[in-house]
Specification:
42% of the residues lie in helices and 29% in strands. It is built from three helices and four strands.
Length: 100
């Protein structure tokens, strides 16, 4: 059984700035998280969210260690920066995958 953090981003007030920062800075920070197994991103085609990212880890301990690390602290600081700079709030969800 794996565990994920899902970030659900609402539509930013500055879409162009958000997209540039998201792919040039934010996603590279995500990829530095220790224990990260996979990153999935996508742009919503319907619903209340603009974009999502799923960060997959093998175990809850790996997820906790990743966000407690220096890389995790930098990522969360950048998440705050994005929210303040581009007006895109993020809802975070922890998802425990079902076996099978």
């Amino acid at each position: 059984m794996s565990i994920s953090v899902v970030a659900l981003w609402k539509t930013p007030s500055d879409i162009e700035g958000f997209e540039e920062h998201y792919f040039s800075t934010h996603i590279p920070l995500v990829r530095q998280l220790p224990g990260l197994e996979e990153v999935l991103t996508g742009k919503a085609t319907s619903g209340p969210y603009y974009r999502m990212a799923e960060l997959r880890f093998a175990r809850a301990e790996d997820l906790a260690g990743a966000f407690g690390s220096e890389a995790g602290q930098q990522l969360m600081a950048d998440t705050n920066h994005i929210q303040e700079t581009y007006g895109a709030s993020a809802d975070l969800l922890t998802l425990e995958r079902d076996a099978g």
